[in-house]
């Protein structure tokens, strides 16, 4: 069976190299991360959306990345969600989210992140290079939102408020028992972040200049959330038979999206489309930045992560913060014994449901396509396109969010761009 999964052999090889100390690639990954960290003082480019692709754009790779994302949409959506939760450990990302007061409650989080899901989905299924295409308009809207938020948050009169944002601004606490003690107990033996001295901090008196929110490094951090675990562990997210070419295409796709969203080439996490080096960078980033950050997870992190999960549960029934985090920990090799032990039975059940579906059942050809179709249908219910859900009983529909249907071009683009397998 291993012969049928091209990734597992490479994963074993990568793990062997890590254990034996792959000094050459480690040095490259370290150097690349140091370069990315230089972007902390460089704002994201918020000027006009580029009208032509960059010189390094490869249409075949881009299309291959889109096709890969469409075929494995359910697993990729799961990867995006669990990675989003871990991103919230970063104060540089968490504080602006709390300050804007648009995702601290279940309903607000639901509306905010279903919008994010629809925008990203439109990029996977649309043409971001074609003028007036819904995907192209989506990119422009996201740039405008980033520009507005950046101006608001980095304004000299508001920045101190953002820097000092704390749990009090998160609103009414959730009734769920805190899992922070379990998380801290599980991660207490993990090594700290070796780059902590290079990571600019919010509200720090040791920095001559104030922290610049929406900088190039923060955007690269977001790119890792979209590509990291997929590149490292595709077989844990339903992409059991992913080829190297497909993963290179996926990397190239997100390199292009980063370019369109204002990331300079030197700070683009997906620079150069090199699969092996990107894997090494992802592994290094995961081990040296993401895992150590979980040692210092805050109450604000847990509250906002719960808001994300509870909002998602309105169209993904059964989802919880506990089940998503436990699955992420299981995938990336994060200690989670105490965390899992203190989960409720239904949370434990959904955690195992995710493991069985995406790590076992997706070995069966066609299963990932079935779950991807179901995921798209669930999102379509929220978008409320009549051609998606007109026959579905109204009493069984989730909350619907208006204004997103103009980006929901799944059917037309899927038919127009469907390529032979």
Automatic annotation (TrEMBL):
Entry keywords, A to Z: Membrane, Transmembrane, Transmembrane helix
TM ranges: 314-332, 352-384
Protein name (database record): ER-bound oxygenase mpaB/mpaB'/Rubber oxygenase catalytic domain-containing protein
This protein's record includes keyword Transmembrane helix: yes
Superkingdom field: Eukaryota
